[in-house]
Amino acid sequence: MIKSLRQLKPSLNGKNLLCFPFAGGYSVSYRPLSLALKSNWGVICTEPPGHGTNRDPLQDDLTKLIDLYEEQLDDYFHSPFALFGHSMGGIVTYELLGRLEKRGIFPEVAFISGMAPPHIPRVKRQHEDDEKFIALLRSYGGLPDEILQERELLELFLPVLRNDFASIDNFTYTEMTPLRTKIHFLSGEQDVVATPEVMAEWSRYAQRSEFHRFPGGHMFPVKHADEIAKLIQRVLTDAFVL
């Protein structure tokens, strides 16, 4: 397995769900989802440079990171697959999907979660001082309390998180026509980063779309993996690809 990829669940039918993590996340972030999925599909997650077990230097250029994923995932694009990305991973999913469609490659379906669409201005956070940045992370609910309350442990995570926030802050979306692949957009009912109303604005970017709300704030996929897994299973069943 390539070091930027991790297999969380083996495929029993040659089909795979390809997952892209949120800022600061890595393959383990999707383990609850992979365990909750009751299907023959495999689950592959990207392991960003400098995250988890990938000891390569951090990459703060999101375009280059997508280049890397497109290259390393290429073998999976020649059999049935689906895409899932939350927050920063939602940007990756959208951009990668646009590239693949230009190549004539179409996944069965895609899922974009918790990320505002391209036309919504982003508030840049990478240069916040530590206290404001930590308060921001706490509001997202993305780090366990034991890390947030232990300063020495938290300082190990801050460079990775700041790197990922910088990659989002500095990224410019590619202009493209509405995508042909059906995209399911997921939002948390209490998410203050990408509210359900903001997520609804994605409708202009996909020819076919469906919107889903879940309980919780920005990190709802972590806390409601079982419910998201049920949605994915239903969607794949409806597409006759389970």
TrEMBL record:
Gene3D superfamilies according to UniProt: alpha/beta hydrolase (3.40.50.1820)
GO biological process: lipid biosynthetic process
Keywords: Hydrolase
Keyword flag Ribosomal protein: no
Positions of the Thioesterase TesA-like domain: 18-236
Family: Belongs to the thioesterase family.
Name listed for the protein in its UniProt record: External thioesterase TEII
The species this protein was found in: Tumebacillus permanentifrigoris
The organism's taxonomic lineage, starting at the top: Bacteria, Bacillati, Bacillota, Bacilli, Bacillales
